[in-house]
Design a protein that fits this description.
The protein is mainly beta. Helices cover 13% and strands 41% of the residues. It has 3 helices and 11 strands; from the N terminus they run E-E-E-H-E-H-E-E-E-E-E-H-E-E. Strand 6 and strand 7 form a beta hairpin. The longest helix is centred in the N-terminal third of the chain and has 6 residues. The two termini are 22 Å apart.
Length: 114
């Protein structure tokens, strides 16, 4: 995971280019009402079936000096990465598509730009 800033709060994120949406632990969403607002957005039935709940972003993610503006995140009880309990966010393509990324998987590093 990578530690970044969300509205002055440090969060541990991971990146998932195969995931169309950003997922956030429900406990983190509930504990930070200044960052998220429940949304009545009509959901894709597949997302609803996975127990995801839509929330509007009130503050954007900032990673490596780049602001990632996407309107929604989806809260989920537990993230699908077992053994990483401190992980709070999995950035999906709705956020990642807002920037240019370069991953070096061998070195476990990334670069981000606009």
């Amino acid at each position: 995971g990578y530690s970044t800033d969300l509205g002055g709060e440090s969060v541990l994120v991971s990146f998932d280019t195969g995931n169309p949406v950003t997922m956030v632990k429900k406990a983190f969403v509930d504990a930070h009402p200044g960052l998220f607002r429940f949304s009545s957005k009509e959901m894709n039935p597949g997302l609803k079936a996975k127990g995801l709940v839509p929330y509007e972003m009130l503050v954007p993610f900032k990673i490596g000096g780049v602001t990632l503006e996407a309107q929604y995140v989806y809260a989920i009880e537990s993230l699908p990465f077992p053994g990483v309990e401190e992980l709070q966010v999995i950035l999906g393509m709705n956020h990642m598509a807002k920037a240019c990324w370069s991953f070096d998987l061998e070195q476990n590093t990334f670069k981000i730009g606009l």
